[in-house]
Amino acid sequence: MSWLKRLFLRRRRYAELSDEIREHLEEKVEDLVASGLSRDEARHAAQREFGNVTLVQEDGRAVWRWSAIEDLGGDVRYGLRTLSKNPGFALVAVLTLALGIGANTAVFTIVNGVLLQPLPFPDASRLFLISYSALHGRFDIGPSLSDRHYLEFRNQDRLFEHVTSFAGTRSTLTGAGDPVQIPVANVTTDFFSVLRTNPEIGRGFLATEDERGPDDVVMLGNHLWKQRFGGDPQIVGKTIRLDGVARTVVGIMPAAFDFPNNAQAWTPLSVRIDEHNSFSRPVVGRLKPGVSRQQAQAELETLAQRLPADRGQDRNSMVAQIIPLKEFVVGNVRESLVVFAGAVGFVLLIACANVANLFLARAAHRRKEIGLRSALGASRWRLVRQLLAESALVSLAGGVAGILLSFWGVPALVALAPEGRIPRMEMIRVDGYVLAFTFGVSVVTAIAFGLAPALQATRRDVRDSLSQGGRGLTRRHEGVRSVLAVSEIALALVLLAGAGLMLKSFLRLRAVHPGFEPSNVMIMTVDLPDSTYQTATQLRVFHSRTLAELLRLPGVRTAGAVNFSPLGEFLVRGDFHVMGGPALPPGYVVDKPCVSAGYLRAMGIPVLRGREFSEGDNENAPGVAIVSESVAQKLWPGEDPLGKRIAMEDEPKPGDWLSVVGVVQDVKQQGLSKKADSAIYQPYLQVTRPFFLSHMSFVVKTEASAEALAPAMRSVLREVDRELPVQSIAAMDTVVAATTAEPRFQARLLGAFAILALGLAIVGTYGVLAYSVAQRTREIGVRMALGAQRASVFRMLLRNALALAGTGIAIGAAGALAVTRVLTNFLFEVKPSDPQVFVMVAAALAGAAVLACYVPARRAMRVDPITALREE
User: What is the structure's pLDDT at 57?
Assistant: First the structure.
């Protein structure tokens, strides 16, 4: 029998049951009439004896029906009818919840895509980073293995199927349109085997292809293949040029594959031990089936005790770690996303408190209705269930509206983030997990804001509800509303305190002086391929020509060059030797930039003693160096550093010693939040190693706006070598601002959530005060009839508002002192308990409470005593 037939059968039985009850009552009436009673008296007596007809009918129907489903349907229909009678209330409640649920949905969409979705590799849970490095070392390169340790681990490991090492770089692609710099990954030949990812076209690397030679190979990313080569499958087997080197294309990777670091091409990496330099790179391994992370950790710790120490490394600072690969992909964005998720959770709680207040106020006007339903036999559970059905309808509508808001909110959040800050952008989308999350949040929200009002509205005595149905809620109910308002203020204070701390931290960071003057300075960075520029002489010639052409540009005051610019992506650090002086402190290293004459003037780096470099400081002149202030104080405290002798080589020969000719101010090389770096500068005309000259940034100081010079600087580069693309060109002001982009994003986003929370708290406080005025209209009328002045009525309501705000501020301050500790890692020169921030936030909330009090107070001051008493 179909469900439709069963439905009609139940309805027929319901009708038969009603007819049978009616016939039974009529028979009883006739018997009582026959005994001498009037028909009206007989009917009332029969009904008293039979009991509640509706309850009997429902008990009988329960035998035949799907009671839970039909009751739920009835509750939903009842909820829709009652809400449709008050559309203004429903709209306000839905919009309030839409803001809270929408914010949560938007943040969860990002959290789901970035943190929760698995990596796009088969069995990705068995991929781990293998690291033996200093957690906070002098080079701060993150989880990695040095080349020496990687080779030792690869030879001795027994728990991983394969291990691979890789490094990111940028290379110049020529011969496929205009020269362009692309991100390239140098990977060992078993890289794709570890990730279990095969090329879409062609093949992967062979084990013998890690050696440089005439058969250099490359694999192309899908995007690069389509963009630069028109998606032609015949490119496999042909050659392209990367950094001037001809490489044979052997494969095309799938569209979704760009690991690591959004790579568009992959070249083989040969890992060799260099006795003079130590290179560290990320290493990934795939655990064998049945091997746990803990076993791999124990093996690495045991092996680390036997690994040879690299030159200059302190073994006590080294830590062995086995880390899920997702941590490498996600980076440190996890902590930020968790904080934002917590913040929007607070916003949702405030929204729930607001809507709960609305439902409590609405219950005041429905007490007579609820009392009548209870008198007619409805159980308290039935009434609570019906009220919860209304809450669920409002919450689900708010969830739907929240999803619609999230389609705008997610792109807005991503747009606020610094470029490249949020990884795995392709995974950020509204999918089934997001919809399930929103549905779950909507259900929980319905219970959170609907249960308390439903219990409060149904707990009063039926007789009391009927006799006082039009008088509103009692003091107990008003107290519940006040508690909700206090909770909103407390939650808003926590968010405002967090936002205030982040804002103060950002302002402190932005005020840091970087050690140079970025105004009216343009910086252009170029990488020179070693296939074309093979010797230091060729590199110096290129740099000299470029500088000469830049100096000829109109509006240029001065120009210079540096191989590793301040706040740039790359940096070379190391130790050195001091002639006739004490040995260097353990682990003491310095930056080693090489610069041109005019660089210090172009960057506005003050020369504190001595002189800066000149064109005469070339390969034919005695070697010279300039040290930063901290180096001079460290090595020669109380002495004149000019004329002191230092050497940058590991084993200096007589010609390697450099004379100190100047002292300059320390520069923030690695970021405004970092300590200023100690540095030793060398003139690039005296540097003989091509490695230190192949990456160069040209700095130009202009008379006016620097950005207008960018096209001319590009033209200069094309004139000197038209095969070279500009790696980057930007105003130095922009470079400095980029270092504060992350804290700016955090402060803006947390501030936006805090402002939303403050707005909701103001609305909630206003609602409580306005309802209090409405409830106390008679009292206020009596007071004014007895001579109370309007000012005293205003002060009374102001005291109520400040009492709510003061209680909320006290509770919120205690919570904020505990919660804001999670922001410690985000703050710069600001403590989580900063008293100035807390005082300002408390004052703002107190002012907001006064603002929320103004309209209800004005309304109370205009109460006409005669009218108030007559209405009562």
Answer: 56
What is the SS3 assignment for 671?
A: coil
Render pLDDT for 531-569 as a digit per residue (tens, 0 to 9): 788 899 999 999 999 999 999 998 899 999 999 888 887
Q: In this structure, are residues 220 and 193 in contact, taking their beta carbons and an 8 Å threshold?
A: no
Whole-angstrom Cα distance, residue 328 to residue 325?
Answer: 5
Least confident of 85-99, 215-229, 774-788, 795-809: 774-788
Exposed/middle/buried for 276, CB within 10 Å: 0-12, 13-18, 19+? Answer: exposed
Residue 746 one-letter amino acid = Q
Q: pTM for this one?
A: 0.79
First-to-final CA distance of the chain: 61
Proportion of the chain in helix, strand, coil states, percent, rounded to 5? 55, 15, 30
3-state secondary structure of 183: strand
DSSP 861: H
Angle made by CA atoms 857, 863, 868, in degrees to the nearest 5: 130
Contact in structure between 702 and 522 (CB atoms under 8 Å): yes
Handedness of CA 324, 325, 330, 332 (dihedral sign): positive
Q: Which residues have CB under 8 Å from 677's CB, separation 6+?
A: 590, 591, 628, 666, 667, 668, 669, 670
Q: Residue 59: which pLDDT band, with cuts at 50, 70 and 90?
A: low
Closest CA to 489 of 99, 804, 797: 804
Q: Which amino acid is at 716?
A: V
Neighbours of 213 (CB within 10 A): 7
How many CA atoms lie within 13 Å of 669's alpha carbon, on the beta-carbon side? 22
Closest CA to 773 of 861, 678, 847, 711: 861
Q: What is the pLDDT, as a whole number, of residue 339?
A: 86
- What are residue 723's phi and psi, to 5 degrees? -85, -5
Q: What angle do CA 413, 418, 419 make, to 5 degrees?
A: 105
Could you give the CA distance from residue 158 to residue 594 in angstroms, rounded to a whole number? 45
Token pair of 333, please? 């964005």
Amino acid sitting at position 456: Q
Element (H, E) at 539: helix 536-551
Which secondary structure element, helix H or strand E, spans residue 170, and what is its range? strand 160-174
In the structure, what pLDDT confidence band is assigned to residue 418 with cuts at 50, 70 and 90?
confident
For the chain, what is the mean pLDDT?
81
- Among 163, 218, 231, smallest CA distance to 191 is for 163
Give 220's strand partners: 252, 265
Q: Where are the alpha helices (DSSP H) in 461-526?
A: 462-467, 475-510
Q: Is 503 helix (H, G, I), strand (E, B) or coil?
A: helix
- Looking at residue 478, what is its pLDDT? 64
How far, in Å, CA of 494 to CA of 809, rounded? 9
Place of tokens 């089936």: 289
Query: Cβ contacts of residue 306 below 8 Å, gap of 6+?
Result: none
**Does pLDDT of 345 surpass 70?**
yes
Which string of DSSP letters, residue by residue, matches 383-424?
HHHHHHHHHHHHHHHHHHHHHHHHHHHHHHHHHHSPTT-S--
| Contact between 636 and 644 (Cβ < 8 Å) | yes
- The candidate with the shortest Cα–Cα distance to 384, out of 306, 452, 466, is 452
Largest CA distance in the chain: 138
Best CA proximity match to 272, nearest among 263, 281, 264: 281
Query: For residue 342, what is the enclosing H or E element?
Result: helix 333-364
Question: Is the bond preceding 260 in cis, omega lying within 30 degrees of 0?
Answer: yes
CA distance 495 to 488: 11
Which residues are registered as beta bridge partners of 171?
Answer: 182
Specify whether the CB–CB gap between 132 and 149 falls below 8 A. yes
Question: What is the amino acid identity at position 201?
Answer: I
